[in-house]
Amino acid sequence: MLIRPETPKDYEQIYQLIKSAFANSEHSDGTEQDLVERLRRSSSFIPELALVAEIKGEIVGYILFTQVRIGENIELSLAPLAVLPSIQKQGVGKALIKQGHEIAKQLECHYAIVLGNPDYYGKLGYQPARQFQITAPFEIDDTFFMVFELNPPQNNVKGVVQYADEFGI
Ligand SMILES: CC(C)(COP(=O)(O)OP(=O)(O)OC[C@H]1O[C@@H](n2cnc3c(N)ncnc32)[C@H](O)[C@@H]1OP(=O)(O)O)[C@@H](O)C(=O)NCCC(=O)NCCS
Question: How many domains does the chain contain in total?
Fold first, then answer.
């Protein structure tokens, strides 16, 4: 499996992949693929952190981290992560997250934030955001709002996460 940054010729495959991955997901509004198209045009977009997983020339997974603000700090939001339904639970999601974290660490961000399933993200080192005094800008059971520490912060990074406008929050 190859993990690499997306290129414009991948966009259509990525769109279809995200749509099919979220089609049966209970916590989805079915528009994650459109969110990605908006985020690509946003100032929060970081090209090095839009990654595809490819097997034999086919895109089987996608991950995107974009910038969010916490106070004066620029941090990251992981959204979305999608794996082709036919090869889920074979390590593709985990590999994308790990590769994304390695790149993100070099960008010197402190935290990656995710809204998702704690059983899944907990296995990958995400912890409840409340432990870091980081909170969501919306009502949510706080076990679903998690952070991964990329680099220990020098100053206090805490407060409400401000998402890019493209999230529509
Ligand atoms: C969630 C998703 C990205 C996971 O990708 P994946 O490639 O299937 O997951 P992996 O194979 O890397 O799984 C890593 C670990 O998590 C476990 N796992 C996978 N899906 C899980 C789930 N839904 N709940 C709990 N654990 C899960 C795996 O068994 C594996 O455990 P192990 O390391 O102990 O063997 C994928 O199922 C998907 O695209 N789902 C639909 C879209 C979605 O919900 N995205 C996440 C939005 S926040």
Answer: 1
Nearest-atom index, ligand 1, CA of 83 = 39
* Nearest CA owner, ligand 1 atom 48: 116
Pocket (CB within 6 angstroms of ligand 1): 21-22, 25, 80-83, 88-94, 116-117, 119-120, 123
Q: Which residues, including other chains, have CB under 8 Å from residue 142's CB and lie 6 or more apart?
A: 128, 129, 130, 135, 136
Q: Give the CATH number for residue 144.
A: 3.40.630.30
Question: Judging by DSSP bridges, how do beta strands 134-135 and 159-162 pair with one another?
Answer: parallel
Render pLDDT for 55-82 as a digit per residue (tens, 0 to 9).
Answer: 999 999 999 999 999 999 999 999 999 9
Q: Which residue has the tokens 């034999």?
A: 56
Task: Calculate what percentage of the chain has a pLDDT beyond 70.
Answer: 100
What separation in Å is there between the alpha carbon of 121 and the centre of ligand 1? 8
Give pLDDT tens digits for 31-60: 999 999 999 999 999 999 999 999 999 999
Nearest protein CA to atom 4 of ligand 1, as residue: 93
pLDDT digits (tens, 9 = 90+) for 113-140: 999 999 999 999 999 999 999 999 999 9
Domain limits for position 162? 2-167
| Residue to substitute in 29, 59, 89 for testing ligand 1 pocket (most ligand atoms within 8 angstroms of CB) | 89
Confirm if 45 and 95 have CB atoms less than 8 A apart: no
